[in-house]
Design brief:
InterPro entries: METTL16/RlmF, rRNA_lsu_MeTfrase_F, SAM-dependent_MTases_sf. This protein is an alpha/beta fold. It is 40% helix and 16% strand. The protein has a 7-stranded mixed sheet with strand order 5-4-3-6-7-9-8, with helices on both faces. A two-stranded antiparallel sheet has the order 1-2. β4, α6 and β5 form a beta-alpha-beta unit. α1 runs antiparallel to α2 and α4 packs across α5. About 12% of the residues have low confidence.
């Protein structure tokens, strides 16, 4: 029996045994990744995934999340199976993001837009989003377009990331023409130079650099990999070696400088973002960003008040034990919001 056939048989057995299992904790109700991965179907979409799937110490089919190649293969399979993306790849060493969390952010943005639109999610090509720091993976625009039909502009300061994201967008007929990529040539700018004078966006999104230095980023990534390996081996069965910790931790999700760290870290980046958003106040309905560190919130709220944001919302997200949040703000008054709805979302 071929390996993929064995996995199909094992997957069917596991799914049958756990058909009453609860969805993954914390993910958005519309997130298709709330359920356990059906590896038989994922392998059918992406056969190369089969070599990385095995039974973990808990008796479930899984992949070794401390193995960069396994994480990348899983991402390919998820994007193929759920979002009909035929081609997806990233250069070695670039950020390979967890798909479920990225999808969550977009579903919460859809809810945010719906709250401003009589509880109806604006969909289709008339809705435009700006992804600040699109990365080589282009995941946010991919998911946002495939689920809601939105169009995107992806901005990044790294030319390799822009080249990779553009190749992904152009290589997939379902994405081509719906995702534009722009190189930010000035590292001090976020919205400046990316939002042209004659254009508007319904929302922006951003996963800002988390760390303040390369050393901090490296230590954080290695700690994450060690934790993954330790959890995998915690209840390891005798003579089972599928999930042994590697001698030297590998950055399983990757990431270049601009993706992982910047001077001042997350707080400084978001502060700059808020300042520049005020300069584009009438050109975007909702500015949003992820905030990983809860202790940064008071300063963020203070900066938003100083920038004279009209409305500020904080949306909590969680995936398992990981807690994060989205902070969203708008400079539009109620009257301006009503005009925006009528002009852009009434069709």
């Amino acid at each position: 029996m071929l390996r993929s056939d064995k996995i199909h048989s094992a997957s069917s057995k596991k799914m049958s045994q756990k058909k009453n299992a609860q969805p993954k904790k914390g993910l958005h109700p519309r997130n298709p990744h709330r359920e356990r991965y059906d590896f038989a179907k994922l392998i059918q979409s992406t056969p190369e995934l089969a070599q990385y799937v095995s039974e973990n110490p808990y008796g479930d089919l899984s992949v070794n999340f401390s193995d960069p190649a396994a994480v990348k293969a899983l991402n390919k399979a998820l994007l193929s199976h759920f979002y009909k993306v035929n081609y997806w790849d990233i250069p070695a060493g670039f950020l390979c993001p967890p798909i479920p969390g990225r999808a969550d952010y977009l579903h919460y943005i859809a809810d945010l837009l719906a709250e401003s639109n009589d509880n109806t999610i604006p969909q289709g090509k008339g809705v435009r989003g700006l992804d600040v720091g699109v990365g080589a993976n282009c995941v946010y625009p991919i998911i946002g377009h495939r689920i809601y039909g939105w169009q995107f502009v992806g901005a990044d300061i790294d030319p390799i990331s822009i080249k990779s994201a553009k190749f992904i967008a152009d290589a997939n007929p379902s994405l081509k023409g719906n995702i534009k990529l722009r190189l930010q040539k000035n590292a001090d700018n976020i919205f400046t130079g990316m939002i042209n004078a004659d254009e508007v966006f319904d929302f922006t999104l951003c996963n800002p650099p988390f760390h303040a230095s390369l050393e901090e980023a490296t230590a954080g990534s290695e700690r994450k990999v060690r934790n993954l390996a330790a959890n995998a081996n915690k209840k390891q069965k005798p003579r089972q070696t599928n999930f042994n910790a590697q001698t030297k931790p590998v950055l399983n999700f990757g990431g270049q400088k601009a993706e992982l760290w910047c001077p001042g870290g997350e707080a400084a980046f978001i502060q700059k973002m808020i300042k520049q958003s005020a300069e584009k106040a009438g050109q975007c309905f909702w500015f949003t960003t992820l905030v990983s560190k809860k202790e940064n919130l008071p300063e963020i709220y203070q900066q938003l008040q100083k920038a004279k944001a009209v409305d500020v919302k904080t949306i909590e997200m969680s995936q398992g034990q990981k807690i994060s949040r989205i902070v969203a703000w708008t400079f539009l008054t109620e009257e301006q919001q009503q005009e925006w709805r009528q002009e852009r979302w009434s069709n």
